[in-house]
Specification:
about 625 residues, alpha/beta, seven-stranded mixed β-sheet, 12 helices, binds adenosine-5'-triphosphate, binds magnesium ion
């Protein structure tokens, strides 16, 4: 279903509901661009409104405490950046704090290596949790104590059914569940069993501790959810101290309350868990075990982005099967990958401000992210010259042993950043496609007899070219007009339409350049209709009764892809070339971002670049070559 949903800036963006939630809905084109008007001001969104209301009513005495709660079981991706920018951003806007809390309740999948990488990524995005770095495992003692409290209140019991039996008696979305035969155990028996679970007397799976809520509830999350299970496994922080571990919903609600979180912001799939969240901490507050006011949970739509996948399972597969060069491959939608690609934290913030926060699922087109990066890089990147596909140009009437310095601005919109010298000489490198012998209409660059300006230098006229035995152009010959040097009075005496870049062959430095592009060749990798629907108005050309299948990031039921997403990888997503770059680039430090004029934004590789072996990664081209006009 296409709906106009208020955008962060008050404009409307097209929103695409996903197949599972709206089976009769055609997929519309993903959001391509925000409206131009006032798009970068801090707009309103429902979370800003909630917080402003709470501040006005004094619900939390003006405190704003949010949290970002990653599970340390993988690297953060662009979707997490949305959550980070939201949580840390809302806190900062309101003079509050955002906690970094590692949600480390699963001892089998977690690792300290991931924790370090997560903390680095949050810091890289520009946020600071101060002293508020926590772990769910910090609360294991409290969580255990509260579990005993629930047992003592008659609100929890040890269930000894098998996992299969529990699944069978849970009911379905349309049918209620049925009570466990162990539901009416006495408080004393429950306490005894739970303590023996903790003491390690039982094997994995023998018992679980469940809340006693309502097996007939319409909300399956309230059908006596399990809150503790037996896991004889060492935890990366608590070691062998525990062989029972608390489950997510229980842990999360109590962790929020212990930390006095005010606004607990999570993604939409937790909407149906909110009654359980409220139940757990509400009961504890009623029993004076927790203080009011309690945190309130709010849900927002997760980021879905075209031309990538954001599911952890798929990202792991891409790395393990070596479709990419690791987690920090610049094509990966991870934050370590983004950094290595030359994307900027400010670009992510701009992107998130533009896409806004909504309560219904939608798809954002990759071009919106790339545009945000372009816009930020345009501000901060110094201009430099690189010739990516070099061919030699000889200026026959220029002295063989002479050189002179031409001067090029470091940033055309920022004269205060000065200029640098570009050595000019008789032999230059230019781009191969800046010369042709069969110029099409509108081609204003070099061709036999044609004139162009060598940017920041002279006007030259082409007088011929040499070819090798295979017919490839090897040398282009020109003559120059000494009266036309840029910056002199004669520069404007003659108008030419073409303006090409060049590097003196004697001064050029060879560099490894990695031309990265989108990792997938289609907007919806793995979807039955991987191109989606090109227009929001025209229905997709799908057989009647077929919902468009979208390869969602979490493989939710009903959204299983019919095709293998790996078949949609872009074969041209990485191209390695040797280019010539201007001498000033030898001094680039790793992670310096520059614009290669006429090509795009590049970054000196943070790991492999050195003055001796310069390596530049392409972050993004100057213009979007993916969005088809009229598409
Ligand atoms: P898992 O399946 O392991 O839970 P996850 O993607 O939810 O995977 P977490 O580490 O639990 O990863 O996520 C931390 C926070 O980031 C959560 O609050 C989660 O809601 C949020 N988050 C994850 N993916 C997205 C996304 N695509 N858009 C916005 N927020 C996201
Ligand atoms: Mg999660």
């Amino acid at each position: 279903m296409n709906a106009a949903v208020p955008h962060g800036d008050g404009s409307a963006v097209a929103v695409v509901a996903r197949g599972a939630s709206a089976p009769d809905a055609p997929a519309a084109a993903p959001v391509r661009a925000a409206s131009a008007a006032g798009k970068d001001a801090l707009g309103s969104n429902f979370l800003r409104t909630v917080i402003a209301d709470d501040n006005r009513s004094g619900k939390y005495d003006g405190r704003v405490v949010t949290r970002f709660p990653p599970e340390p079981n993988g690297y953060l991706h662009y979707g997490h950046a949305k959550s980070i920018v939201l949580n840390f951003g809302l806190a900062a806007e309101n003079g509050g704090v955002c906690h970094l809390r590692f949600d480390d309740t699963n001892p089998l999948k977690e690792d300290v290596e991931y924790e370090d990488s997560i903390a680095d990524a949050v810091r890289w995005l520009g946020y600071d949790w101060g002293t508020h770095r926590y772990h769910a495992s910090d609360y294991y003692d409290a969580l255990y104590r509260y579990a005993e409290w629930f047992i003592e209140q008659g609100l929890a019991y040890v269930d000894s059914q098998s996992a299969l039996e529990m699944r069978r008696t849970r009911g379905t979305l349309t049918q209620p569940g049925s009570n466990s035969p162990f539901r009416d155990r006495s408080v004393a028996e429950n306490l005894d069993l739970f303590r023996r679970m903790r003491a390690g007397e039982f094997p994995d799976g023998a018992h679980v501790l469940r809340l006693k809520i309502d097996m007939g509830s319409a909300n399956v999350n309230l059908r006596d959810p399990a809150i503790y299970r037996i896991r004889h496994a060492a935890h990366h922080r608590t070691g062998d101290a525990w062989c029972i571990y608390p489950l997510y919903d229980y842990t999360h609600a109590i962790s929020d309350a212990i930390e006095h979180i005010t606004h607990s912001i999570c993604t939409l799939e937790f909407q149906d868990h909110r009654p359980l969240y409220d139940w757990v901490i509400g009961k504890l507050a009623d029993g004076r075990e927790l203080d009011r006011p309690l945190p309130q949970q709010y849900e927002f739509a997760r980021l879905n982005l075209t031309y990538v996948v954001l599911s952890k399972r798929k990202l792991i597969e891409l790395v393990e099967k070596k479709f990419v060069d690791g987690w920090d491959d610049p094509r990966m939608p991870t934050l370590v990958g983004a950094r290595r690609r030359g994307f900027t934290p400010e670009g992510f913030r701009l992107f998130n401000e533009r896409i806004g926060v909504t309560k219904s699922d939608s798809w954002i087109d990759m071009s919106v992210l790339e545009d945000a990066m372009r816009e930020d890089l345009n501000q901060r990147a110094l201009r430099r010259i690189a010739v990516l596909d070099p061919v030699r140009l000889v200026i026959d009437n220029y002295p063989a042993d002479a050189t002179e310095d031409c001067h090029a601005p470091n940033h055309p919109q920022k004269p205060e950043l000065g200029k640098r010298a570009l050595p000019f000489a008789r032999e230059l490198w230019i781009e191969r496609d800046d010369y042709t012998e069969t110029p099409a209409k509108g081609y204003f660059r070099l061709a036999p007899g044609a004139e162009v300006r060598l940017r920041y230098a002279y006007i030259v006229r082409c007088i011929g070219a040499e070819r090798d035995a295979a017919g490839n152009v090897t040398v282009i010959h020109c003559t120059y007009d000494p009266a036309t040097r840029s910056g002199t009075a004669g520069a404007d005496s003659r108008k030419v339409k073409g303006n090409i870049h060049w590097i003196s062959a004697a001064h050029a430095v060879a560099a490894e350049v990695r031309l990265y592009d989108r990792l997938f060749a289609v907007p919806f990798p793995g979807a039955r209709n991987p191109w989606g629907n090109r227009s929001a108005d025209a229905p997709a050309a799908l057989p009647a009764g077929h919902a468009p299948v979208v390869a969602g990031d979490d493989d939710e039921p009903g959204e299983e892809a019919e095709r293998d997403y790996l078949d949609d990888l872009n074969a041209d997503s990485k191209r390695l070339i040797t280019a010539f770059v201007e001498p000033a680039l030898v001094g680039a430090a790793p992670e310096d971002r520059v614009q290669f004029e006429r090509h795009g934004y590049f970054v000196a590789d943070m790991l492999d670049h050195s003055a001796r072996h310069p390596v530049f990664n392409r972050a993004v081209t100057l213009r979007d070559s993916w969005t088809k006009t009229g598409g």
